[in-house]
Amino acid sequence: MKQYIGLIHKDTDSDFGVSFPDFPGVVTAGTDLDDARAMAEEALAFHIEGLVEDGEAIPEPSSLEDVMADADNRDGVAILVAVKTEAKKAVRVNITLAEDVLTQIDAFAEAHGYTRSGFIAKAAQRVIELEGGLKARSA
């Protein structure tokens, strides 16, 4: 189980905010410290599952020294947030497709909020479900 550094921020008259230096843009908040920690675990797991679903790489956790070397991070209190997810490691593959099929995939993926990898993975999973899983087929 990996652990990432979360930074807790608290302004007067605000909830406890949590940000993740290894995942810029991922933020959450809680009404108290326990709530903030629970929300941080949930937000981090959700984000990582989304990255895996989209075929994106999961960064290795930064060290506390590296995180605190950035002056912008020094106003937060560092906590360790455990990743609670069943996300699998993404593997890069090389496939060959007809150009028109790839164009259709890219257009559909973009229109529906997928990455190319995420759409192909989702489509493959759907076909596997529809055709009865990975059972051997008789000829």
From TrEMBL:
Q: Name one Pfam family in it.
A: HicB_lk_antitox
In terms of CDD domains, this protein maps to: RHH_NikR_HicB-like (cd22231)
The biological process GO terms on file are: regulation of DNA-templated transcription
Alphabetized SUPFAM superfamilies for the sequence: Ribbon-helix-helix, TTHA1013/TTHA0281-like
Q: Which Gene3D superfamilies match?
A: 3.30.160.250, Met repressor-like (1.10.1220.10)
Q: Where is the HicB-like antitoxin of toxin-antitoxin system domain?
A: 4-124
**What protein is this chain from?**
HicB-like antitoxin of toxin-antitoxin system domain-containing protein
Which organism is this entry from? Mesorhizobium delmotii
